Amino acid sequence: MKTEKPIEQKMKESEERSRNYFREGLNCAECVMRSFMDIHDINLPDEVIALSTGFGGGMGHTKNTCGAITGAVLALGAIKGRRNPFALETSSERAKELKGIYEDFGRMVIEIEKEYGTLICSELSDPFGDFDGKVRKKNCQQIIGYCAAMCTKYASE
């Protein structure tokens, strides 16, 4: 019989795995998505990681919205996203359904923004110097871990 791990343990494990994936050369969005797939044992093919690749470096290394945050939104969608938007007959029903779905995603993003004061990659990374430098990478690794943990938290609610 498989027992469910406490949420705090799952969050810590998600944080550690995502940080390790960063050390192994995955980008910020890939780290969050991969660790989420591991922790939640969701039945998605590994090719799903390709969907998150372009969000790294603040979306294609433009340093816009942080890839760890967009990776968390993508990963949370694997559990909380709509499976079939066309299950509802009308566009107004579909739009109404989204309002409830958006709540968990929005609360997670707001919690991350409160923690860091911004969602923008350049604002999160520029104070730490050279983008390829160790200090910036250490900062991003911390953000990646936090976003992975938050994603796990909101997936369990």
Kindly describe this structure.
The structure is a single chain. By secondary structure, the chain is mainly alpha-helical. It has one domain. Helix content is 68%, strand content 0%. The protein is built from 8 helices and no strands. Helix 1 runs antiparallel to helix 8 and helix 2 runs parallel beside helix 8. The radius of gyration is 16 Å and the shape is globular. The relative contact order is 0.19. The mean pLDDT is 94.
Question: Given the helix and strand composition, which structural class is it?
Answer: mainly alpha
N/C terminus separation: 23 Å
Radius of gyration (CA) equals 16 Å
Please outline the major beta sheet: none
Instruction: Give unreliable regions as ranges.
Output: none
| Multimeric state | single chain
Mean pLDDT: 94
When the domains are counted, the total is 1
Order of helices and strands: HHHHHHHH
Beta-strand content bin = under 5%
Sum this structure up briefly:
The chain is an all-alpha fold and 157 residues long. It is built from eight helices and no strands. Helices cover 68% and strands 0% of the residues.
Outline the secondary-structure elements.
Blueprint: H1 7-23, H2 28-40, H3 48-53, H4 56-59, H5 67-80, H6 91-116, H7 121-125, H8 134-155
Helix pairs in contact: 1-2, 1-8, 2-5, 2-8, 5-6, 5-8, 6-8
Which labels suit this protein?
single chain; 157 residues
